Amino acid sequence: MNHRIALSFEDGVTRFITCAADQTVADASYRARINIPLDCRDGACGTCKAFCESGAYDGGTYIDDALTADEAAAGYVLPCSMKPKSDLVLQIRSTSAVAKTQSATYTGSITGLDRLSPTTVALTVEIADRDKLAFLPGQYVNIAVPGTDQSRSYSFSNAPDDKSLTFLIKLTPAGVMSEYLTERAAVSDELSFTGPNGSFFLRESERPVLLLAGGTGLAPILAILRTMEASGSTRPAHLIYGVSTDDDLVEMHTIAELGSRLAGFTWGYCVADPASAAPDKGYVTSLIRDEHLHGGDAAVYLCGPPAMVESVRKDFTARGIHPAGFYFEKFALSGTASPTEVTEPATAAPAQVEPAAATTVAPQPVPVTEPASVVTEPTAVWSDGRAIAGQRIFDVGLHESLGAGVRSPEDSTAIRAIAGQIMWSAGNGLRDMDSGAPLLPTGSAREIAGQPIWPTLDSRMPRARRPRFISPGRFDGKVVLVTGAAQGIGEHTARRISAEGGTVVLVDRSDMVHQVADDLTRDGQEAVAVIADLETWEGAQHMVSRAVERYGRIDALINNVGGAIWFKPFTEFSATQIQAEITRSLMTTLFSCRATLPAMAARGSGVIVNVSSAATRGVHRIPYSAAKGGINALTASLALEYADTGIRVVATAPGGTEAPPRRISRGGSPLETDQERTWFQAHIDQTLDSSLMKRYGTLDEQAAAIAFLASDEASYITGTVLPVAGGDLG
Question: Model pTM?
Fold first, then answer.
């Protein structure tokens, strides 16, 4: 018997494979030409370690060093050893690009173009190879807009097995898709799209669900409801549908019909406009009743604009609501978004994973898909505590600095533990800039599968949201595009430029970049987040088109994406790992420069700041060093080639930099063996020995150099690489 396996990658791409009951998932993946991380193939190394969100399986045979008993009990698996007993959903610890795969592209024809209201269009598409398109209810695709080089993201509103594909599209002034649909589109037009994408989808379970939909965020919720109906689900479900005006209300008859056929389903709606004819006026939070939460056993699925998502989260916090599962997807309308909104639509951001039903999964997983939200001030912690499967990790009341130690697990107010492992430990907070790994092997934040659950607080780490050094007004009127802006050097640079008056476009493949943009807009600055995978040419194009579409220009590009993935002697690197290092630390900058230069050249001005590294002379990360050497050559050559167009190209070369633990792994395996720790320590020793100042730099010191080179103060500097490494010249 064959089973369908969904492989969900870190960059939001989901690929489906077929796996026989007597076949390992890794073998099935490689036969489908999807190269998930893999070294040993016999359960000895742990390189392929993944998390099983849903389904039943035989874990197979492996050694404890590859997968501990606690990890197995929590739902972690080794694809090289496991065999499916049902359909599965696996979280893969790498990007689709590293796995040498990508979202599939499909071409179809428009068969329906229905104006549901003055503000909303229902789009129906049919494709010839429908049987090849598999997706999970709630996922989305990127639809290419005919006649343009742009695409827009829309969630399916149909069930996965429906023949026709349907989407709900909000019409927005100056929107490229809106203009196409209202002025040029016709039935029989050809459309192409890529996907499926996203980690917002219905999890298999029998627990009750509360569905919250804002505007066209109703689309993935309809897909979920239709899937529940098709499967004969009897789990209790309640929908609250909220819109801004009566014109935005759509698919009411569809919801009513589902209500008549779907056992245990109830629903209500509200309109924010006080002049509405709706019986309930206001926002979805006003309609959430205690009975909808089933005593905390309900899973919440929320899809809507960022303001709605944040409103619900704050409401839950204020009311002390701790749902068993909380999944959300933020989206914003392109073309008319306010400065407080993000422009990338339908970007999946699962906040927490609902455990699947005990009847279908063995063992019961305790997944962690998003590290606990971290704020920069040490005295502020989420007031309700982050929860995993309904169990709080941080209890209410931990509002004081936690760096001194950990309270006993027996204490009723103590930090929660998983499988007896306390989730917080005090001590060393010093981390390597590139790997995010601790400089000392003990005292770091507790990790699961190499992912820090809560970063260690340390007095040496930056605490304030605002940068330490500021030159007010230095970037007034400038539009600055910062890549890798969700954390680390990129985040600090973006915060500094924003504090100095710049309009920042924050680019990252992690949804965490929305948090940074939200912080800056709350401070009254103009900032917008864009989700893009810059390891691909399409991602770089998307980033630039979003910035130019919104602001009309790019004054400065700061290429910050990169970082070593593995630390070991060169002969220990596989060919795949070498390619992954080059793609991460060189191709991202090459693609971004190529995508940005035409817009700058057309205006006759601009500056590109590439973040290189002093590691061009280093040990145990040779492919990374080669990539950064390429960045230096790229900087010098581009500066020469584009000097007559008014464009400056410069670079900084950071040395070791003290930073909080990375909240998103680069994909390398954690340091698990004595040999791996020895190799990593040799890299640390060399980094410190090469610095004349014998210390690591700070994020503020790195951001200061980047901001200077990006500013008009450096107008007579081009083709230069500035070492920022305590005297290490690289």
Answer: 0.46
